[in-house]
């Protein structure tokens, strides 16, 4: 599957909106739930998601090298509202004309072409939407073309063990069983074990 930078902007919009939908399902009692992100509660995961939205928005506008834009809120007294606002900010930034032709400054990566950077954000939010849904015992709802694009991006993410694990964006890749669907493939390639987090009826 070939995906252009412009395609990634639209794919990312769908992924981010689905992440907002599942985060908004959380109740006050849910924020201390464990998540597929080892050691992170749902509140910590959503704090990370919120900070990443704001950081990518800043990067799209030429300010990605300023650490403050990537800083997580340790309090997160209203996680869903903070996440919803940050999601709107990044979608607005990515919708600006020419965004995929810009260079984004990203932590640990330096300058990244805009189309590729939006692609990184896209696959991250397919995975994080699933992380939130898994913590809540529910499911994500993505069109097939979105999942196909996510699995294609996941296959392109370097699997070098020296670039996976603690301190990096993704856990070590897991084996993908034959016949896995595109979501399961993307999740396993990026270090998630979907069978450990079944949806509750």
Quick structural overview:
The protein is mainly alpha-helical and 201 residues long. It has six helices and two strands.
Describe the structure.
The protein has 201 residues and is mostly helical. It has one domain: Up-down Bundle (Four Helix Bundle (Hemerythrin (Met), subunit A)). It is built from six helices and two strands; from the N terminus they run H-H-H-E-E-H-H-H. A two-stranded antiparallel sheet has the order 1-2. The longest helix is centred in the middle third of the chain and has 23 residues, at 114-136. The termini are far apart.
Describe the structure using short key phrases.
201 residues; mainly alpha
SSE layout and pairings?
Blueprint: H1 5-23, H2 42-60, H3 79-94, E1 103-106, E2 110-113, H4 114-136, H5 144-156, H6 182-189
Antiparallel strand pairs: 1-2
Helix pairs in contact: 1-3, 1-4, 2-3, 2-4, 4-5, 5-6
